[in-house]
Each structure stands twice: as structure tokens, then as C-alpha cells.
Amino acid sequence: MDIIKKSCEMEWFADRVRESRFTLSEHVIRYLMAGKVTVRDIETALLDGRVLEEHRHSTRGASYLVLGVSKVKRPLHVMCADGGNGGLMVLFAYVPAPPIWTTPTRRNDSGGHNMADPFSTCFFCGGEMKTITVGNFDYRLEGKLYVIKKVPAGLCLQCGEKYIEAEVGRKMNALIEEQRFTRTEQVDVIDYQ
């Protein structure tokens, strides 16, 4: 991508931020809730940052990786794309770190991925993964919410993304289909107004 195009993209992003015409993905919301980044950090990166990479997808179109600085002066990556209707969609926001990133502007040549270990690094942020047992895994199937306890998974220690292996996913579906429920729990609900 040439310098002029990068500059035009950053102006477009900054306009959307100033007009509050952007939305945040669920991945970004989880990162916000973990206290790793704030909406203000994302806004600052999109106002003052620079386009580091452009990614093209045959059906989703272009997305842009912006490098900015958070309020505590840490580098911040914000992946964003045209969200339609003239708005911006913020897909990911994370602090660049090894093993994916050797510096905030340079990817590790190997990419940091080890296919022998399904939980080696986080796909989204490159963070370190840890094998855990998830106490409560919220699982939606055909519009219904199920809570499955004690699920073996991988957890990104940087952004909180969880991963399960294919066989675990199949077993979760089977447990629901076979209605092997052990109990029900009351859930508190809040209407956001």
C-alpha cells in the first residue's frame, strides 16, 4: 500500500472516531473487560496511528492493521475494516508481543505457530496459550444457551480468547443432543438502557 493510500485510510478512520461511527467486535469487548485496553486507547490509535498492514479477503474485503500508542504509552495494534453503512468495524485490539511480533512493527519470520500444539499461540493477538479447564463455558446451539462445566480448552493469557479442539466441540454437541443435563442454574439478567 502506498503512502498516499495509507494516509487516506487513516483520515477515514479518524473521521469515524471523531463522529463516533464505529462498532467493536466481541473479541474487542472481551479485551476491554479484561482491562487490557480501553475504548480511549483504540480511539487514540485510530486518530494518531499509522497503517502497518493491509489484508485482502475475497469475500470480506480489506482490513487494516493500525499501529498506535495506548494511553500508558504501550504500542497497540487495532485491526479494523469498513463496517458498512459508512461506519468502521474494530475487529481486534491488542498489544503486539512475541511470539508473533518481534517488535511492534515486525512479525516473527516463523509466525510463532506450532501446528503440533493446537494451543501454541493465539490466532488473534499472538499471545501465549495455557491449557486450562473452563469452569463455565457458554455455548449457543440453535439459538439456545447452554452452560457446560469443566471443558478442556486453551486460553490466551494476553487477550482471553478461548479455544477448544474439534473432538471437544463434537462431544459438547453430543451432550446437548442427548440432553445429558445435570442441573439448571438461575441466571441474573440486566437490561441495558
Describe the structure.
With 193 residues, the protein is of the alpha+beta class. It has two domains: 3-94, YaeB-like fold (2-Layer Sandwich), CATH 3.30.2310; 122-177, Ubiquitin-like (UB roll). 24% of the residues lie in helices and 37% in strands. It contains four helices and ten strands. The chain has helices spanning 3-18, 26-33, 39-48, 166-177; strands spanning 22-24, 50-57, 61-69, 75-84, 87-94, 101-103, 106-107, 129-141, 144-156, 162-163. The strands form three sheets. The chain has a five-stranded mixed beta sheet. A three-stranded antiparallel beta sheet has the order 8-9-10, covered by helices on one side. Strands 6-7 form a two-stranded antiparallel sheet. A hairpin with a 2-residue loop joins strand 8 (129-141) and strand 9. Helix 1 packs antiparallel against helix 3. The N and C termini lie far apart (42 Å). Mean pLDDT is 82; it is low at 111-116.
